[in-house]
Write a structure and sequence with these properties.
One of its GO terms (molecular function) is kynurenine-oxoglutarate transaminase activity. It contains 15 helices and 12 strands. By secondary structure, the chain is α/β, with parallel strands linked by helices. Bound molecules: 4'-deoxy-4'-aminopyridoxal-5'-phosphate and glutamine (GLN).
C-alpha cells in the first residue's frame, strides 16, 4: 500500500470552484467567482486569433515577451513616474497566482513568518505553508476592514520575512490610502522584510481615488514585489496571464524559482495583449469608469433590498451585510439559502479568514456582469 502524506491535509477544493459548481448545478445567477460574463474586446480576440494563425505557437522567452513587458513598464511610468527596466525588472507569468506562489517560494524559508491580513485571498496562506513557514493572520477591523497598525507592530518579530498586501482588496473592495503605506513603511523600513503587493485590481479604483502601488514609494522600492493580472484588466480571466515587477536583485531570485514553476507564459496571448495595449490605450483609461458604472447600477438595485453595504472603493466585488435579513444564518448557510431558494450565488466572506469573527454577516457579490444579469440579480435580491 502506498502511503500518501498531503502537504495541505486540511485543504478543501477552493471556494470559487465550489460556488461556481453550485451555480451551474442549480442553474442560478453566478455572482460568486470573480469573472466577467461579457466578452473581451473584439480586437483583442482577433489579435489572439491572428497571433496563433501567424504561427506564434512555440515557447515564449522565459521572462516574457519584451513588447508586453514594455507595455507594463509604460503603465508604471504613466501612473507612478517610475522608470522600470523591462528586461531586468518585469516578468510575465501565466496568471497572478503563480507569481504570488513563486515570490513566496523564492524569498520565504522554512521557519520564517509571513504576515497576511484577513480576510485574505485564498492562495496566500497555503503558498506560505508549502515552504513550511508560519502564517501570521491579522484580522482587518470590522466593519470598515481597515488595518490596526498597533496589531501589525506587535506581530513583527525577528522571523518576519514578508508582509502580503492586497490593494484594491478582494473580498472587501477597500483600497489602501497613502497613509496606510506610510504606516507600513514606518514599521518595516529598518527591517529585513519583503513586501508582496498583490495589485491585480490596480485599474479598478472608483470615485476618482488613486491606486497607490507599493513601487511608488521609494522606501519600498528595494523590498517589494508587485503582482498584476491582465485577466482582470482585459476581461480575460481564463487567459491566466499576469506579471511580476521588482528590482533586478529581487527579480533574479524570483526567476530562479519561477523558471521551474512554469518556465514561460503563453506565447500568442502575450502577443495579443501587447498589440492590443499598444493600439488601444483607451481600454485601460476607461476601465475605472466602466466598472464604476456597473458598481453604481448594482448599488442602485441593492438599495431596494434589505442588504446593507458601504460602496466598494475598488475591485469588481461588493461586500454586503445581510444581518437585517437572516441574522440566524452564518454566511455559508446564507449563501446556500440564496442559491437554493433564490437562485443567486455569492461567496461567504468567512472562508477568507483563519478565524472569522463569530457574528460575521457578510457575503461577496461580483458585479463584473452584463446589465441584464445585474438587473435580474437586483430584482431577485430586492425580494429576499
Ligand atoms: N489575487 C487576487 C486578489 C485575486 O482576486 C485574483 C483573482 N483571481 C488573483 C490574485 C489571481 O489572479 P490570476 O487569475 O491572474 O491568477
Ligand atoms: N479571484 C477570483 C475571485 O476572487 C477567483 C479566482 C479563482 O477562481 N481562483 O473570485
Amino acid at each position: 500500500m502506498i502511503e500518501i502524506h498531503s502537504k495541505l491535509p486540511a485543504q478543501d477544493v477552493t471556494i470559487f470552484s465550489t460556488m461556481s459548481a453550485m451555480a451551474q448545478r442549480l442553474n442560478a445567477i453566478n455572482l460568486s467567482q470573480g469573472f466577467p460574463d461579457f466578452p473581451a474586446p473584439a480586437e483583442l480576440l482577433q489579435a489572439l486569433s491572428q497571433a496563433t494563425l501567424e504561427g506564434n505557437n512555440q515557447y515564449a522567452a522565459g521572462d516574457g515577451l519584451l513588447s508586453l513587458r514594455e507595455q507594463v513598464a509604460a503603465q508604471f511610468e504613466k501612473r507612478d513616474q517610475l522608470n522600470l527596466d523591462p528586461i531586468t525588472e518585469i516578468t510575465i507569468t501565466p496568471g497572478a497566482t503563480i507569481g504570488i506562489f513563486s515570490a513566496i517560494q523564492a524569498i520565504v524559508h522554512a521557519g520564517d513568518e509571513v504576515i497576511i491580513f484577513d480576510p485574505s485571498y485564498d492562495s496566500y496562506a497555503p503558498s506560505v505553508q508549502l515552504v513550511e513557514a508560519t502564517v501570521i493572520h491579522i484580522p482587518l477591523t470590522t466593519p470598515d476592514f481597515s488595518v490596526d497598525w498597533n496589531q501589525v507592530k506587535a506581530a513583527i518579530t525577528d522571523k518576519t520575512r514578508m508582509i502580503i498586501v492586497n490593494t484594491p482588496h478582494n473580498p472587501t473592495g477597500t483600497i489602501w490610502s497613502k497613509q496606510d503605506w506610510l504606516n507600513l513603511i514606518a514599521l518595516i523600513q529598518d527591517k529585513n522584510i519583503v513586501v508582496l503587493s498583490d495589485e491585480v485590481y490596480e485599474h479598478l479604483v472608483f470615485d476618482g481615488q488613486h491606486h497607490y502601488s507599493a513601487l511608488s514609494f521609494p522606501e519600498l522600492r528595494e523590498r517589494s514585489f508587485v503582482i498584476g493580472s491582465f485577466g482582470k484588466t482585459f476581461h480575460v480571466t481564463g487567459w491566466k496571464t499576469g506579471y511580476c515587477v521588482a528590482t533586478p536583485q529581487l527579480m533574479k531570485v524570483f526567476r530562479q524559482v519561477y523558471q521551474f514553476a512554469n518556465f514561460c507564459g503563453v506565447t500568442p496571448i502575450q502577443i495579443a495583449l501587447a498589440n492590443f495595449m499598444q493600439q488601444h490605450p483607451e481600454h485601460i483609461q476607461n476601465l475605472a469608469s466602466f466598472y464604476q458604472q456597473k458598481r453604481d447600477f448594482f448599488q442602485l438595485g441593492l438599495a431596494q433590498s434589505r442588504f446593507k453595504f458601504t460602496p466598494s472603493q475598488g475591485t469588481y466585488f461588493q461586500n454586503v451585510d445581510y444581518s437585517d435579513i437572516r441574522p440566524d444564518l452564518n454566511d455559508v448557510e446564507m449563501c446556500q439559502f440564496l442559491a437554493e431558494q433564490h437562485k443567486i450565488v455569492a461567496i461567504p466572506v468567512s472562508v477568507f479568514y483563519q478565524h472569522a469573527p463569530k457574528n460575521l454577516r457578510f457575503i461577496r457579490f461580483c458585479f463584473a456582469k452584463k446589465q441584464e444579469t445585474l438587473t435580474h440579480a437586483c430584482e431577485i435580491l430586492s425580494q429576499v
